[in-house]
Amino acid sequence: MKTFFDARQHDHAPAMELHNGAYVPYAEHRGRMENVLATLSQVGAPRDHGMEPIRRVHRDNYLAFLQSAHERWVAAGRNGDAHGYAWPVVGRRPLNLNRIDADLGQFSFDASSPISAGTWTSAYWGAQSALAATEAVLGGERAAFALCRPPGHHCGADYLGGYCFLNNVAISAEAAIAAGKRRIAILDVDYHHGNGTQDIFYERGDVLFVSVHADPATDYPFFWGHADERGEGAGEGATLNLPLPRGSGLEAYRAALDTGLAAIHDFGADMLCVSFGADTFAGDPISQFALQTADYTPIARSIADLDLPTVIVMEGGYAVDALGANVAAFLAGFDW
Ligand code: Q9C
Ligand code: ZN
């Protein structure tokens, strides 16, 4: 399968993150990609599709913030990585405070996604990898894989969070629509709910969002991903959340996945974009499902059985030593 990655995706390198009340080493680090790259045979560098496909998803003020946030943090006399610590939840208004601390709160929803000096460069090239995989599929490949880092599914049109800065799967879906595809299905099989992707397409009837994830009653991102969120307006019924309890293994997972795949089949999509996170793995240090490496192949095979042109983008997965094997097992399911 054609696979895309750009070495500049390594530039994003926050040192620590706030986790369960303490600062711990950042879980979403370059070693994840190194483990995956060691298992992939041919990996292509993406060409540069520029800003236009990114601007189809993200707001201009957010993109300007993301490109300048770390410089502004340093200019304010701060050391290390930038992240928010005050959020405009009460009395939310579209204020323009021109203060880095305020903007970090305005354009984020959590404190677990620091911005380092290389964050914009890495996010930009990760999005370009997603666009290269999309271009390959639009050009006739049955499936292609973008080894996106940083991941994307938690960030929305104008906010970052959950280690995510640019929503790679949304950028892929919008690029496919711009190229003439009419109906896109997005299937999110990361452990966590893809709240950013859901928000971006919540009122859209032409993009179906289906997610199998840990119940947000117990797990991050808590405030999205509940089964009663079904889309609004033209998008009513085009969001399907399939939360599962902690501890779920292959049997429970397959039952939820089959429900999601049936919805995708009924929607009549002409292309599929998959947010693949390997943090559903039993050994994941921050997640609580019980999938085994060998389980990823039959899961992927049932997705492949939809028989749709498929773009796969990397999301989470923090059991670094097993990540390459888990990705390889998933991609093996797409050898039609
Ligand atoms: N104490 C992705 O998998 N931190 N993001 C949770 C739990 C955020 C995961 C903290 C986890 C985000 C792409
Ligand atoms: Zn995740």
From TrEMBL:
Keyword 4Fe-4S recorded: no
Keyword Metal-binding appears in the UniProt entry: yes
InterPro entries: HDACs, His_deacetylse_dom, His_deacetylse_dom_sf, Ureohydrolase_dom_sf
Source superkingdom: Bacteria
Any Pfam family matching the protein: Hist_deacetyl
Coiled coil, from the record: none
Domain called Histone deacetylase: residue spans: 32-332
Cofactor(s) essential for the protein: Zn(2+)
Keywords: Hydrolase, Metal-binding, Zinc
Family: Belongs to the histone deacetylase family.
Name by which UniProt lists this protein: Acetylpolyamine amidohydrolase
Organism the protein comes from: Blastomonas fulva
Organism phylogeny: Bacteria, Pseudomonadati, Pseudomonadota, Alphaproteobacteria, Sphingomonadales
